[in-house]
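During the second half of the funding period, the structural biology subgroup turned its attention to how the target accommodates small molecules. The most pressing case was 2'-deoxyadenosine-5'-diphosphate, which had performed well in the primary screen but for which no bound structure existed. We therefore specified the complex as follows and requested a full 3D prediction, including the ligand pose.
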Amino acid sequence: MVENDDVTIEQTLVLIKPDGLVKSLTGNIIDKLSESELVIVGAKVVSVDRELAETHYRDLKGQKFFDELIEYIMGTYHTKRVLAMVYEGENAIKRVRHITGDTNPESANPTSLRGKYGRITTSGVFENVVHASSCPEDAKREIQLWFKPHELTKVIYDTREEEVTKRETVWK
Ligand code: DAT
Ligand code: MG
């Protein structure tokens, strides 16, 4: 987060969840988010493993809906893909949360993304289509969890250099 006299430039993590991908809502969602006049500084499609899912939602561990939430974000009910994006700009967190709407898709403003496209399943899972960070601390933690520094088009948090030697799969 960078501050000067009257504007707060923030970054926020947006996830289009597996139901959004399986319902081909990606275009609609990105189109609606463009009303925020923010800039996308990173984007990738991710296959979410249990460790990433549980780390992302770690503050909700112990809630009765936690296990199903983890299955949902891992794609067990839809497709094993999530579109992860970082948006940046003035008051990015609040602007994006306004467009995504309330957590519960049934009480969300009907013109918000969750109000429009979300649903609650018969087993009580909030299939609310999108995730958006809720405060600067969460945004930083979530962006650093989902993205490596080189995957963003600009440096938004402090970095350090480290020697890394590991085997990796390359094109044949
Ligand atoms: P948000 O995603 O609006 O930041 P949150 O961080 O409180 O909301 O919860 C994360 C996700 O967990 C949310 O998108 C959907 C799910 N969830 C939250 N409360 C729930 C509930 N009472 N029943 C079922 N799922 C819930
Ligand atoms: Mg949250």
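Two results from this model are relevant to the next phase. The two ends are 41 Å apart (CA to CA). Residues 134 surround magnesium ion (ligand 2) (CB under 6 Å).
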